[in-house]
Amino acid sequence: MIDQSYGEWVTFFEMNHSFHISKLEKDWLGNWKLVHWDGEPGFIGGAAMDLSNNDGVILGASSITNDHENKHTSFYYGMIANSKVDQIKLEKKEWTDKNVALIETERYRFFFYVAYDRLDPFSLQALSNGEVIQQFGGGIPD
């Protein structure tokens, strides 16, 4: 599945029983290649694709840091097979987004969220009618 997010082309795909997300970039010959957010070859993130043991929800997060400029970029992503999930909530100590956009496909729903800050601490939740179905992250300290 390919989507345009944050002005970039990103793809969600399955490989070797894993779910991955990567940015798509064209090389000088016009061929597409899979790259991390910073343009280096690789993936933004991924997770084992075991929907049966996690309520039909896969949640993940990763980050990159530019040490020279002290800039942080965090990525939150997921794949949802559970039709009861109606909301993705991302909570950080400084802010909360209760309506992370879901990308609909025939088979699954996906989401991809970019934040220009440090990864931890965070709480990423898949909800059904306000009830937590699946949670990822260390939580938010008081």
Question: What is the gist of this entry?
Answer:
With 142 residues, the protein is an all-beta fold.
The arrangement of helices and strands along the chain is EEEEEEEEEEEEE
Query: How large is the share of residues in beta strands?
Result: over 45%
According to DSSP, the number of beta strands is 13
Distance between the termini: 38 Å
**Helix proportion of residues, in percent?**
under 10%
Structure description:
The chain is mostly beta strands and 142 residues long. The protein has one domain (2-83, 101-120). Helix content is 0%, strand content 56%. It is built from no helices and 13 strands. It has strands at residues 2-5, 8-15, 18-26, 32-35, 45-48, 57-66, 71-80, 87-92, 96-97, 103-104, 109-115, 122-128, 131-136. Strands 1, 2, 3, 4 and 5 form a 5-stranded antiparallel β-sheet that branches. A 4-stranded antiparallel β-sheet has the order 6-7-11-10, with no helix packed on it. The model has no long low-confidence stretch (mean pLDDT 89).
